[in-house]
Amino acid sequence: MKNVLARIFLHPPKPPAFVGAGLPARTPKPVGAGLPARTSKPVGAGLPAKFLSILVPVLLPLLVSAQPLAPVDLALPQDIAGEFAFVRLEYDNFYNDGFRRGTWQTDFPSADSNFLRGVSRLTNVRVMSEPIVLRFDDSRVFDYPFLYALEMGRSGGPLFNSIEQENMREYLLRGGFLLIDDFWGTNQWDNFYRAFTEIFPEREIIELPSDHEIFHSYYDIDGPQMIPVIGNPDNYPEQDVDRASNHAILDDDGRVMVLINWNSDMGDGWEHTYDPSYPTRHANLAYQLGINYLIYSLTH
Predict the structure, then answer these.
(1) 233-257: average pLDDT
(2) 189 phi, psi to nearest 5 deg
(3) Is 12 a domain residue?
(4) Pseudo-torsion of CA 282, 287, 288, 291, nearest 10°?
(5) Could you tell me how far CA 203 lies from the centroid of its own chain?
(6) Which SS3 state, helix, strand or coil, does residue 258 take?
(7) Within a domain: residue 89?
(8) Residue 104's closest CA among 186, 200, 180?
(9) For residue 261, what are the β-bridge partners?
(10) How many domains, in total, are found in the chain?
(11) Tell me: the pLDDT tens digits for 145-164?
(12) What is the domain-level CATH number for residue 175?
C-alpha cells in the first residue's frame, strides 16, 4: 500500500515565501505607548444592583465557557487543510440532445455536497466542504487524485479534445483515479467505449469480479449493486441490461485507474438522501459503494 499522504497532491505545492523577508527589522512599541494612562473600573461599576443581579446569571456561564471562535458550517465539519476534495469532471457531449449545458451536470450540486457530508460522518477522512468542477484541459486537475463523472453514455457519449485526451492519459498513469457513474444499457456503453478506447487503445476494459478488493476496502459489499433513479423504488432495469456490473481500466501494476459503475446510479442515491420517496436501503448502498471507491483510490 502506497503512502496516502504522498498521493494527496500530484503537484506538491511550493513553500510560501516568508512574509516580510528582506525588510529591515524594527523594534515594536508597546501597545498604547505614548497614550495617557487611565484607571480601569470593575466590570459593572456604576450599574444599579438590581440590573446586575439579572445580568450576572445570564453572562457568567457564557464567560466561563467562552473559547476563541471561527466561522463554522454546522452542517459539515470544516477543515481548511482537508485531505479530500470532491471534483466533478466537466466534459462536452458528442451531440446536444437538450441536456441544458451537458450531461456532466446531472444531480449537481446536491449529490456532490451530500456525498461529502457522508464521507465526513462515516469515515475519518477529512473533507473540503464544497465540491469542485474541472475539465481535463485545466491543469489544476492534477492537484486532485479523485475525479467523478457521470452520464457518459448519453448524447452520443463524451467528446474530448486533444489536450483533454493527453491530460487524462497522463493524469491516470501518474496515479489519478476516475470514477464513472450512471449510464445504462448497451447503446450507452457503446458511446462510452468509443471515447475511452481513443484514450487507451492499448488497454482492455475488464469486468471486476465481486470479490475484488475494491468492494472490501472499507465496507464489505457483495460486488456491484444496481442503485435506481428516483421514482423507481422497485429497482427495475432502465435499459436492456438487468444487472449492475463494475468495469475498469488498469495501470501496469494492476491498479484501477478508471472505475466504471455500469447500470447503477449512485448519484441519485446521494442527491435524494433526504427525499422520503427514495428508499433508504438504496441511498445507504450508494454511500457504501462511493466510500469504498474513495478509500481504494486514496490507498492505491
Answers:
(1) 90
(2) -60, -45
(3) no
(4) 160
(5) 27
(6) strand
(7) yes
(8) 180
(9) 246
(10) 1
(11) 999 999 888 778 899 999 99
(12) 3.40.50.12140
